[in-house]
Amino acid sequence: MKTKFARKEDIQRKWYVVDAKDQVLGRLSSRIASYLRGKHKAVFTPNVDTGDFVIVINAEKVKVTGKKLTDKMYYSHTGYIGSIKEKSLEHRLVSEPENVIKDAVWGMLPKNRLGRQMITKLKVCRGAEHGHNAQKPEQLEITK
């Protein structure tokens, strides 16, 4: 029996819509990362991008468990001495909820060229509307 490896030309990509309303951030992100990598397909190959496109709507309504809203901090550095910036998850969910989900999913993807290619297939929208109706996305149910 020979192993069949997927090639870039043979991959059939689908579009999925995920509603993030009342979903736990970590569980939602791990499921999205799995679909972006293509692990749900029988032709999954680790060194080929076999994943699908995922659209996340209602990004601002995502939930977290415990005291993460106030205790979880995101840090960034400007490059100057002593100029480290920090934002809490609560503040980021108000100002930039798209980046909260994108950062959580990025943490679950490979950190190489392939991972950077996979994260471009993630589209995150703040409200219930998205601009990808022409692709005819399917609804993806993620259990809590």
Care to describe what's here?
- This protein has 144 residues and is of the alpha/beta class.
- The protein is 28% helix and 17% strand.
- The strands form 2 sheets. The chain has a 4-stranded parallel β-sheet with strand order 5-2-1-6, with helices on one face. A two-stranded antiparallel ribbon has the order 3-4.
- It has a domain of 97 residues: Alpha-Beta Complex (Ribosomal Protein L13p, Chain: A), CATH 3.90.1180.
The span between the termini is 39 Å
Largest sheet features: 4 strands, parallel
Question: How many beta-strand elements?
Answer: 6
C-alpha Rg (nearest Å)? 17 Å
CATH topology of one domain: Ribosomal Protein L13p, Chain: A
Instruction: Write down the CATH class of one domain.
Output: Alpha Beta
Beta-strand content: 15-25%
The residue-averaged pLDDT reads 95
- Structural class based on helices, strands and sheet pairing: alpha/beta
- Say what oligomer this is: single chain
Order of helices and strands: EHEHEEHHHEE
